[in-house]
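User: what does the whole thing look like in 3D?
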Amino acid sequence: MNEELDSQLSAMFDDELPAAECELLARRLSRDELLKARWGRYAVIGATIRAEGGVRLNAGLAGRVSAAISSEPTLAAEPAPQPKKRWETSWWQPLAGVAAAAGVAAVSIYWMRSQVLPDTLPYVATSVVPAVATANTTLAATTASATQVNTGEPDSYVVPKNAPRRLVVPSTELANYVVAHSEFSSPVTRRNLLSAFMASESGTAGTSAGSEEPTEDAQDDAKNPQ
Amino acid sequence: MSADISDLSLVRRVQRGDKGAFDALVLKYQHKLVKLVMRYVRNPAEAEDIAQEAFIKAYRALPQFRGDSAFYTWLYRIAINTAKNAVVSRDRSPIEYDLDRNNTDESYDMQGRMKDPDTPEGLVLTDEIRSTVNSAIEALPEDLRTAIVLRELEGLSYEEIAATMDCPVGTVRSRIFRAREAIDRRLREVFEGGLGRVEELG
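Assistant: Here's the predicted 3D structure for the full assembly of 428 residues, as structure tokens:
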């Protein structure tokens, strides 16, 4: 018999053979009766060295099991499913969740943008990030004015042509909302809120009037750079 | 080297319908399993019957074996449960059990006489196997004997043996193989020259 093959058999018996070689040798071992007999003798040698008392070395147990198994139906061709490693099931699940959420958000934003009328688009944008939008508006207005002066082409990259008209929700709408839902608020709270709305109405008017001015100032700045 | 890889290779083959691979698993673990079962029953013949039943149960359950644990660990649990059930069953109906043992048919009786080590032939063969293996080990060169004893008696891996003997792993593999070959050469003479029944090695 091939010495290298026997050496592999010995290593496989000790579970010290590389997996790829194991696969090949297992195939041969299951078919080669001489190799199987040698494999069995290796087991006898080990049992004898360990002095496994009471074990009958020639009891023919393997032969009886083999005979019993031969009458058993052959096992299904499909082995049991491999156990999934923890990392195989867990690492992608959070990412998939985040990706799904991001996808839904992106679709929602796209859909909302397509639904919003052009003159209300600035309102949506400024409602989300009013401070940034205001700054952008000022800067963009400055840039747009400068561009118009230099090239004559409008710059629609940052600021839409239609300037924001309503940067805040009118107090009257909020007041109507409070009145409509007055059953859920106490009279004192309601009165305070309405007073606050009335007070802010006059302030807002001043603010909105003033909000137009930076554009004009910016135009002046563009005309008179430092 | 990952543990149990050779057993797993054989198990996968059995799961794909290769019954011959199961023979190799039985040959490898039958002695261990009988020794294990003998913690529960004193009679060697009874222990072998229980081990046989455990192997058959394992074969039937093998499609459900997923490799989460080592094959022998899985087999060990089946054998323990089978042994416990057998003890309980025997205690409930000891007479029936004895009758079962005595009411064997003729074919079993013939087969049993050939293989039963309680017969004079069987006892002689078992003793001869033991003395042959032991004398072969004694005759081994020191490095081969140390390697095979560390492996089989102490259960050390090749890497651990290499560290112990201060030699490469490849040398350990070669020494263990050569030790086994030397012992097996003598053992083959016993089986082939003695009763001439190599297949009875199980």
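In plain terms: DSSP finds eleven helices and no strands in chain A. The longest helix of chain A spans residues 187-211.
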